[in-house]
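Protocol step 4 of 6: structure prediction from sequence.
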Amino acid sequence: MATRDAVAAELAGIVGADHVWCGEQARQRYPGDKSWLTIVHAHYGQPLNQPEIAVAPATVAQVSDIMRLASRTGMAVTPLGGGSGVQGAANANLGGLLLDLTRLDRIRDVDEASLTCTVECGMNVKRFDTELARQGLTFTHDPASAEWASVGGAIAARGSGVLSTRYGNIQDHVLSLEVVLADGQVVQLPAVPKHGVGPELSQLFVGSEGVLGIVTAARVKIQKQPGARRFSAVRFPSLAAGIAAGREIVTSGLRPAVIRLYDAHSSVLSLEKIVRAGLQGETMVLMVEGQHAALVDAEMQICEQICQDHGGQKLDDRIGALWWDDRYGMSHPPHTPALPQIWMTMDAVSDFRCIQGLYDGVTAAIASSIDPKWGLSVKTHLSHWYEWGAMIYARVNVPRGPDNLQEAVALHDRIVAAAVQATLAAGGVMNDHHGVGMRLGPHMQAQFGAAGMSLLQGVKSGLDPQGILSPGKLGLSSPLAG
């Protein structure tokens, strides 16, 4: 307690006493992220997020001073952005210091000639886009969590958004990073990622979930507001036909902003709730946008022809528009799950050679992972497409889990393990854009292998020899994690 109070006093000298919280006050202010694991543990009075101190700096200099203090005292530090993560990464589950970065929320500069912007890590994604819109610009990273997520949080988890097929995931938006290391050093990485001065170090920190360093600002790509936008919807005779059409679209140089292919179950139980169009069978929603209307029209026409060539039947274009207008409605009541349900998203990614097997294997493995008495359901769509492959987004729900924390977590873990094992067996990667967190940490060894984990551990040890940054995360060992 004496050590905690002494550290809190020093922190107050750095950021002001109004931005430091100790003990139960810190834990009540910061209950943790949106992961089912976080929520269920809190419900049973065993919260995963248990910081001894929480602190909210407002400048990179303050973050640097805080890390120098943490390095000197050996205190664990867990960074927190908007807290919208669903994997449990932002929990200070080993105690220590919770670093709230949401006060670092300025747009430092906008370069309209280069269409780039430097933005601080705590900036809310939706507010960032709103600020850019006043200048006729947009941040094309558009996740379902935009109203809660921070830019830094998206970078930490290698997040994605609905426009990724055209504009890429968050790593494709990042040009450069400002990072505070474990010892408090501030590193400004090269301004652009295309260079010949050694490895591209900015990407080292993208997806590191605060384990390697603390991202305090990023230089990101932005775009002009699109001048034209077109929607379409297509029904396919099978998921395989829809995958074949999507593959031809993205491998032939076309870049629609949105390709969402719903399996029959997800079409009826998810998409239909938004569009209310009497959907049956596998359904694809397409959206094309850009600065030039003629080009947008031509691109959509070619996409629709490709879909038709693969047996697709064109539906009312308003289905696509209705989805767009309410695309995040499923993230709000009454559609959001709540205890005693068990819920999760198991998103996995592969190349096109493996994608059908990935879908078949993972959905089957999830469906058979636990006793049928639990009534597990899985609804799957493919929403992020790349020139080499795609991902599956499997929403899992158990209507009522066990009325016991250990039993409920064990049931959850069996579902996760089955999905991961099936992903790896199919030649896929166990996560596309939600990150690792506490949910997937135990499976990192299976994903990377012993040599891969040794490499990652070496990077961690080199940047953070004391192991104070997010100890125990990414499946890595730490002196503080035991």
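Step 5 (inspection) to follow. The chain has a mean pLDDT of 96.
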